[in-house]
Amino acid sequence: MRAPGRPKDSAQTKRRILDAAITEFSAHGLAGARVERITEAAMCNKAMLYRYFSSKEKLFDAVFDEIVVRTVDAVPMDVTDLPGYAARIFEQHLRTPNILRIATWDHLERGGAGMRLATVAEVNRAKVQKIEAAQAAGMVTSRYPAEVILHITLALSRPLVGTDVTIPAATPSHHIADAVRAALTE
What we know:
The chain is mainly α.
């Protein structure tokens, strides 16, 4: 809650809501998340949350968009080194497990709706276009369509969740790079 006499800062309030929602959604998913816990952690009220995001579902969309942008900014794709890119994404997932948890919740509860958000779709389109250009230049295999290459790269970069078979955090990321290299070798 805002201290008396302190000016409102809508950008800070929105940021606090997003940060609190990332924590809440990663722990509980969309269905299990509680707006009350988000507003308490964000030190705001429900009216502010709904003013910025209009619904819990729209807040989840904003969180999903945020985590994709954060990941793209933190780990830019190097089309000339897709195995290295996969290893860096793997390391990013280990450093920030909330990202993978939210993506998993999105897949389980919403059928991957977050992947269809305009910003996310554009990020993936740009990656596919980079792969296509690298294929045309002979730098990346043409054995698979660019979309499949992106999928292979990203799928192999994800630590397994929800199974008894996990890749230990101590696993060198070069194993991930080796797997992508092997998958994409002609």
